[in-house]
Specification:
The complex is a heterodimer of chains A (344) and B (619). With 344 residues, chain A is of the alpha/beta class. Chain A is 38% helix and 14% strand. Chain A has 3 domains: 70 residues; 173 residues, P-loop containing nucleotide triphosphate hydrolases (Rossmann fold), CATH 3.40.50.300; 51 residues, no CATH class. Chain A has an 8-stranded mixed beta sheet, with helices on both faces. The radius of gyration of chain A is 27 Å and the shape is elongated. The two termini of chain A are 14 Å apart. The relative contact order of chain A is 0.14. Chain B is of the alpha/beta class and 619 residues long. Chain B has 5 domains: 177 residues, Rossmann fold, CATH 3.40.50.300; 108 residues, no CATH class; 39 residues, no CATH class; 93 residues, Roll (SH3 type barrels), CATH 2.30.30; 148 residues, Orthogonal Bundle (Sec63 N-terminal domain-like fold). In chain B, the strands form 3 sheets. A 5-stranded parallel beta sheet of chain B has the order 2-3-1-4-7, sandwiched between helices. In chain B, α18 packs across α22. Chain B is elongated. The chains are: A alpha/beta (344), B alpha/beta (619). At the A-B interface, α2, α8, α9, α10 and α11 of A face α1, α5, α6, β7 and α7 of B. Bound molecules: adenosine-5'-triphosphate and magnesium ion. The site of magnesium ion (MG) has 2 residues of chain A, from α7.
């Protein structure tokens, strides 16, 4: 195979497959764009190129050129990309018009908590709770309601966030709900309203408090601490700071309920099982992936043209990827344009 | 990297489909700033009513955060309804932008992907322009978690029927990872249990050493380790079940017995005449290939004059005389047959290895041989039975040569041995896993004992008792510096400068205000200490320009922020974070007031001077 033919074949492949071919042959191939990848692959030793041709042949064998893809108008010589992951008989892809149907602002409705929110609040009376639900679902409502109940029971509450910036936002938010006299904030050098029932701090500060309490020297009372809320608790897996979340959970007072708010993670059940295994009550997991506002995906071409990103309107979960043909075409054109003149 | 589409056109396209407000995630701060700048050159302003609303919100925010008042980006925000939101900005400005977004005043916020967790406000649409991010020095593909964290900000509950994630290309974007990120299950998270010196000290302050292991076992790290260990245990059980078939035989531990037997056999036979290279058919022949033996060599005949071993490899070799009188050397295995005929040959010590008389006799005999001679049948033991001598030698030490179980042992040994090795390997792995944390703890204990923070009985020394209160990175360096009096009598600003250079872990270059000798010499001393501790703790960067910046802010209490930020090329958000971090470190020194009152006072002084202007706005 001449370089030219190989170059053409490579250009017809999705970038994903190019990365596949480059694996173990091109260092840091994942940093490269399509053009650089192709050029680097073509510059490999003849031996390696022969290997690539072999893998290429086996890749190209079974999926035939897709008949339903219109050829890009401005690059007639370019073979259309082979199809991958497309089911044998796909449902018709949606139109751009359909994609953008139904945009708008819903009417105001009286607030009614979701079942999972209620479930979380109820369980917090007796259990620790992990809330692993999609972004923007309403975890804060659970936190606020649990705080309200704790205050009614004359307990104190500690709310931690990983970032000082978030602490400040929460200070404002909680002050609006409970009144500013009810909320305090602790940093390394400042204590604003430390006698308030709700205290906001970073997780490191709470960990330090817990160590001080363990060695019996603390100027703050932890025996009335009824609720500890750890926001963004997926930080448990942070390379440098994750250990602080572990220490906090291990040393959290037995009488305090833990409420972990987390973005979606793959194994919330494992985290719940761990917490159950070390605490006096079991840890209840609330986990779902249903977004309260449905999410759709679009592709915006540099020309300003919008197209559906997927063949379907809603984003399907874990069902394999089926990009919209129009998006594929636009993206292929984009790559052609930006990759510059191809080596002849 | 900027997106391929011009930011103004991007926003136009979104507006056209009613996809605003939007958060546009870009790769770098610069890309965000440039995007905002680009609006200046394309006059597409927002309606006056919205500008007024923006002004109103900003005024309200300014009451709380005065530093917003003169922000250079305010006019852009007012005219175009767009803002940048990234770590280069002051927290107060970011709070203002977030509030504007919440109030629905903005059409777009350009933010960096790196701080996605800090972007705690939703929008109708999220624009994604990249499939990988810079992490430290590497470019990493975005994880499913990260992509969902970004995309999840699309669609505001109560304000949107539907939310959007819009993908638009920039250099190095790939659609595959984004599509996967949007549809796949997020990755599981793993424990990152880093042991630190302060952790060890604090644990030993509250608990005696024999209570530590159970505490470590409560960690998520141990929980996950146990799950892994359990999986190994299951495997181990399987292996042990399989091993049962190879239980006790004539001897209790036949696997070991057989192994040492075969080992001994190998070793002995190796020493003895180095016969190990001979294939069985050759060693069977060797006994017959004595001087005078007639042999067949590829259809021709020859008479053996001598048998010997080659120097290097110890191959069996022959010197023969061929018909025609040539004297040649051959490896023994080139002999095609041994003939049932021996002639008299008188040996000699050197070439031609026999007496001249014998040589003559041999040549004559060869010439007179008939073409066909009787071959000697030689029995070759294919299973390599040991030579009688070896067997005799080994049976003194091993029962194996005569044991009835011998054929079974020989057959089963490879499989049994494999299983037993697997058994040992698994047992070791499981043990290592289960005790891993404890070992790491003990390593830390040893270092703390070496430096005198812990007694040999693992109790806190008086030094350890205060050192445990320094619960930050580089704690060992800081406590050692305190112990050697490095901070005694130094000014508050110099103290802050040193701590800033310890705290700062970013090596992005920045310009700096002038250096001064006290700072250079103090940092030189700190660097030496840090270097001497490098076996126990990663040394900090200790940049003197960073120290000089902190020193400047604290040393000149009347210097306003606006002037301060002009003294360096660092972004003001970075400056703010550097000083906030230094405050954190200073507050830890202040915590030592009962044992180190002078140092604590100095730290307090530095903190008070630091907390002014924008550094006073937020707790
Ligand atoms: N049951 C409900 N019905 C209607 N709206 C709700 C409900 N619960 C919460 N909301 C609204 O949803 C929006 C998002 O909630 P919230 O900020 O708590 O999300 P979150 O889960 O904390 O998201 P993040 O992952 O970004 O922290 C808020 O405006 C809130 O008022
Ligand atoms: Mg939240």
């Amino acid at each position: 195979m001449t370089n030219d033919v190989l170059a053409k074949q490579l250009a017809g492949l999705p970038v994903k497959l190019l990365h596949h071919l480059a694996r173990k042959r091109v260092p840091r191939h994942f940093r490269m764009g399509k053009n650089r990848l192709i050029q680097t692959l073509l510059a490999l030793s003849p031996d390696q190129q022969a290997e690539i041709e072999t893998s290429l042949a086996s890749l190209l064998q079974e999926p035939a050129r897709s008949p339903d893809l219109p050829k890009p108008p401005d690059t007639p010589s370019r073979p259309s990309p082979p199809r991958h992951n497309v089911p044998a008989e796909p449902a018709p892809a949606i139109s751009t018009k359909e994609l953008f149907e139904g945009i708008g602002v819903p009417p105001q409705r009286p607030f009614k908590p979701d079942d999972w929110q209620q479930e979380a609040i109820n369980h917090l009376a007796t259990n620790d709770v992990i809330l692993s639900v999609p972004t923007g679902s309403g975890k804060t409502y659970v936190a606020l309601e649990a705080m309200r109940r704790a205050i009614e029971a004359e307990q104190t509450i500690i709310y931690t966030s990983p970032l000082k910036a978030l602490s400040n936002t929460k200070l404002t938010e909680f002050s609006q709900t409970f009144g500013s006299d009810q909320v305090g904030i602790l940093t390394g050098d400042r204590r604003d309203n430390p006698q308030a029932p709700i205290l906001i701090m970073t997780t490191e500060i709470l960990r330090n408090l817990l160590y001080d309490a363990a060695s019996g020297e603390i100027d703050m009372r932890l025996d009335t601490l009824g609720l500890i809320i750890l926001d963004e608790s997926q930080f448990l897996a942070d390379r440098e700071r994750g250990v602080v979340w572990e220490e906090t959970i291990i040393f959290a007072p037995a009488q305090s309920r833990l409420l972990l708010l987390s973005a979606s993670i793959g194994n919330p059940d494992e985290v719940a099982a761990w917490i159950s295994s070390i605490r006096s009550t079991s840890c209840h997991l609330i986990h779902h992936r249903n977004r309260s506002v449905p999410l759709r995906a679009a592709y915006l071409d540099p020309s300003g043209k919008l197209a559906p990103f997927f063949r379907t309107r809603d984003i399907a979960h874990g069902k394999g990827v089926a990009l919209h043909p129009e998006t594929k075409r636009l993206f292929a054109n984009y790559e052609d344009r930006t990759l510059g003149p191809r080596k002849r | 990297m900027p997106p391929a589409i011009h930011p103004v056109d991007l926003l136009q396209a979104l507006r056209h489909q009613r996809l605003t407000p939007a958060i546009v995630f870009l790769t770098s701060r610069r890309a965000c700033d440039e995007a905002i700048d680009s609006f200046e050159h394309r006059h597409v302003s927002i309606p006056a009513t919205r500008s007024a609303a923006i002004t109103h919100v900003l005024e309200k925010m300014t009451a709380e955060y005065p530093s917003i008042a003169d922000h250079p980006l305010i006019p852009t925000v007012q005219h175009y309804g767009v803002a940048a939101h990234h770590a280069g900005h002051l927290p107060s400005w970011k709070i203002a932008v977030e509030e504007l977004m919440r109030q629905g005043c903005l059409d777009a916020v350009f933010a960096t992907t790196t701080l996605a967790a800090g972007v705690d406000f939703p929008a109708r649409t999220v624009v994604v322009t990249q499939s990988s991010v810079r992490k430290d020095r590497d470019i990493m593909e975005l994880t499913v978690n990260e992509i969902q964290q970004l995309a999840g900000r699309g669609g505001r509950r109560g304000k949107d029927y539907v939310g959007f994630v819009v993908v638009t290309p920039s250099p190095y974007i790939d659609l595959g990872p984004i599509a996967n990120g949007l549809t796949n299950h997020p990755e599981p998270i793993d424990s990152q249990f880093l042991l630190s010196y302060p952790m060890v000290l604090n644990l030993l302050k509250a608990h005696t050493v024999d209570h530590i292991q159970p505490i470590l076992e409560k960690s998520f790290a141990q929980f996950q380790i146990n799950q892994r260990a359990d999986r190994y245990e299951t495997k181990l059980d399987e292996v042990e079940t399989q091993l049962e078939a190879y239980g006790q035989r004539e001897c209790a531990d036949w696997i070991t017995q057989w192994q040492s037997f075969t080992l001994a056999k190998k070793r002995r036979s190796h020493h003895r005449l180095k016969t190990r290279h001979d294939p069985p058919e050759v060693s069977a022949q060797l006994a017959f290939l004595t001087p005078g033996r007639v042999v067949e060599l590829s259809k021709d005949h020859a008479i053996v004059l001598r048998q010997y071993r080659s120097r290097g490899q110890g191959y069996a070799m022959l010197t023969v005389i061929r018909s025609g009188g040539q004297i040649v050397e051959y490896p023994a295995n080139t002999i095609t047959a041994v003939i049932d005929e021996i002639i008299d040959v008188a040996e000699a010590r050197k070439f031609p290895w026999c007496t001249p008389h014998s040589l003559k006799h041999a040549i004559e005999t060869l010439e007179n041989f008939p073409t066909r001679l009787r071959r000697l049948p030689i029995r070759v033991d294919q299973d390599g039975t040991d030579s009688p001598v070896l067997t005799e030698m080994l049976s003194h030490e091993f029962p194996c040569p005569t044991c009835p179980a011998r054929p079974a042992c020989q057959k089963d040994h490879p499989q049994a041995l494999k299983l037993r090795q697997e058994d040992h390997r698994l047992t070791k792995t499981i043990h290592a896993l289960r005790t891993e944390l404890w070992h790491r703890f003990q390593q830390h204990v040893e270092v703390l004992q070496k430096f005198g923070y812990l007694t040999p009985a693992c109790q806190l020394t008086p030094e350890g008792d205060w050192a445990r209160l320094i619960r930050i990175n580089h704690s060992l360096l800081i406590t050692e510096l305190i112990r050697m009096g490095a901070f005694e009598g130094i000014s508050a600003s110099l103290l802050a400068g040193v701590l800033a250079s310890i705290a700062h872990d970013d090596d992005r270059p920045a310009s700096f205000p002038g250096r001064h000798p006290a700072l250079i010499s103090t940092l030189g001393q700190v660097r030496k200490v840090a270097h001497s501790l490098s076996a126990y703790e990663e040394p900090p960067l200790l940049r003197w320009d960073i120290a000089a910046i902190a020193d400047l802010w604290i040393g000149q209490p009347t210097l306003p922020w606006s002037e301060f930020i002009r003294s360096t090329t660092m972004a003001e958000g970075d400056l703010y974070r550097l000083l906030a971090r230094t405050l954190e470190y200073l507050s830890q020194l202040h915590g030592l007031r009962s044992t180190h009152p002078g140092l604590a006072d100095s730290a307090r002084d530095a903190m008070d001077r630091m907390r002014r202007d924008v550094l006073q706005e937020l707790p």
